[in-house]
Each structure stands twice: as structure tokens, then as C-alpha cells.
Amino acid sequence: MSHSPGRRGFLFGGAVIGGGLLASACTSNASNDESSASAPALAGTDNDKPGQKVVIGFSAPAADHGWIAAIAKNAEAAAKLYPDVEFKAVEPTNDINQQIAAVESLIDAKVGALVILPNDGQQLNQVARKASDAGIPVVNLDRVFPDKLSYRTWIGGDNYGMGVAAGHYIGAKLKEKGVAKPVILEIQGIATLPLTQDRSKGFADALKTYGFTVTAQQDAQFTVQSGTDVATNLLQAHKKIDALWNHDDDQGVGVLAAIKEANRTEFFMVGGAGSANAMREIKSGSSVLEATVTYSPSMASSAVKLARLIAQGKGMSDLVEQGVPQSITLASETITKDNVDTYLPLGFES
């Protein structure tokens, strides 16, 4: 879920903390404080025992979107689990220069580690490199910095895998229905982001295995309004549709609104992220939305845990290696009516 504004274990406010089933990756933003946090318990490994005090700096885009709001909540909740962690979050912002200045303030404060979800990895690469060069380990969350010298560890969702999962769901169903030349539409998130391009490539590659291609593709902005606008345009341009993949469940709220307004029911839709809103639609059985592919905001809580381990010179307890891995890619799972009850408690509110 991850990007210029926007978005992208234990339960916290409707998002998963720690382990990470869910998913939304995206980007964008729209704050949502509807859920309350439940107090998660630690797993109880030696790694969770109090150790050296660590100050962890945190910077992310503004929470103008459900997935990003869940990112911030998860990061803070994970930090609160550890008496040896001081969590130092800077003001979230969608302004590149403001985020750079905020990260610089954390570097000046000589924090022990940094967790950064950049608005844009390319544009914040230099300040992340500045932190790394100053000896501050950076855990890069979701939107990746292009220079590997800029971060110690990257953790994020499998954007390509999201596209693959969506493509297989759509391709298999259309094959089963015997549709020869299906009209398949794709509503992307922010088109300039590498994560969006990865999602589209995974989708196209999976559809190709069934002999299908995307009929039309249009980008949105990971927001409800952009979802409404783009879906309205596509619905007007295509009088008959067989399947639709929307990259992001937050903008999917707008996509579904446009579909209902147009009274179109001849096709089925797959979402992306794993929002509670989308899962309730899937569970109802009365929506065109039949599935969503995950991209979990739980990655933020895992990022904080990793930053703590790195700063304390520890590795991951379930791995043989002494150090935390250089990159961790979370799996993208497909949520349908058959398994939605398992995932619903883990969804974030759009």
C-alpha cells in the first residue's frame, strides 16, 4: 500500500500489529480514529526482554487515508510494548520538504534508529542516506529508497504479488465461466510510484497465463474522490465489463460508490489492501466486490520491532543468523467470502 501521500500479530484499532496478515498498500491518506487499541501482549522471546534503551524516530505521510492512519497507529502501539523504547514521532506530512526537515531533526537529535515511510523514496533518499552515514540505522518502510546505502533494512508488502493474486483470481474465474475475450479494467493508485508499477506488472503477468490482457487502465490517487472519478469515467466508457481490479481499498470506497450510482452489476471486482470496509462488502455476498488482496499496515509495527533489534545489536529469534535481514517482503493473501471471517478482525477502517 504504499507513495506520495498516502499510503499500504496483535490487534490494534482494527489493524494488525506485529505479525501481519493484512494488507493495503497504498498510499494516500485519510485519517480514521474510529477504532480503539487493544493492548497486545509480547510473544515472550528473549528478544522481548528489556535491554538497552533505544530512541526510535518515526516519520510517515499524513494520515488522510485509512491505511496510512493504521501505519501510524501500529508503529506507536508496537513501541509502547517495550519499556526500553522511546518513540519519537515527527509531525506527519505530505510535503516532501517538510518530511526531509522532520527527518533531519531526528538525525540532529541523534536517535538510535529511524523508521521512515517516505512520501517518495527517490525524493527522500538523500536524507535517509544522511542518517545512515551518521551511523543511525534506517528501517525503510513500504516505499523503497533506491540507494541501498540509505537503509539498513527494508520491510514492506509484495506489490508484484498483489497483482499476481488479483490476476489469478480474475483469470481463473473468467476461464471457469468460459469468457473468451473478457473486458478487464484496472484502476491503479498513483501511477508514478514503483509500487503501483509493480502491482500492474504482476496483474498483467498473471492474466497472461490465462491468455487475457487488461482492456483499459486508469490511475487514481489512493483517495475516495479519485476512486469515484476514475470509476465513473471507466463505467461510462465501457458499456459491458467482465472484471475490475482496483489497487486500493481506500479509493475503493469511491469506486464502489460510482458503481452503485451507475447501477452496474454485470461484472465482479477485486480490491487491494484488506480494509474492514472491503471485507464487510465481500461478506455481504450482495456486492460486486468479491475479493481483496492484502497489503498489511502491520508492517509498521514489525518495522519498529526490527529497528529496536538492530539498535540493540540483536537478530531475529526464529532465524539462525545473528543479524536482522536486509529486506523482508510480506506475503499478499487473497480474501474471499470463504475466509473473510478469519481476516475481518484484522482489517483497518477506510
From TrEMBL:
Record SUPFAM superfamilies: Periplasmic binding protein-like I
InterPro entries the record matches: Peripla_BP_I, SBP_2_dom, TAT_signal
Keywords: Signal
PROSITE patterns: PROKAR_LIPOPROTEIN, TAT
Pfam families the UniProt entry points to: Peripla_BP_4
Domain Periplasmic binding protein: 56-314
Localization in the cell: Cell envelope
Family label: Belongs to the bacterial solute-binding protein 2 family.
Name recorded for this polypeptide: Substrate-binding domain-containing protein
Organism placement in taxonomy: Bacteria, Bacillati, Actinomycetota, Actinomycetes, Streptosporangiales
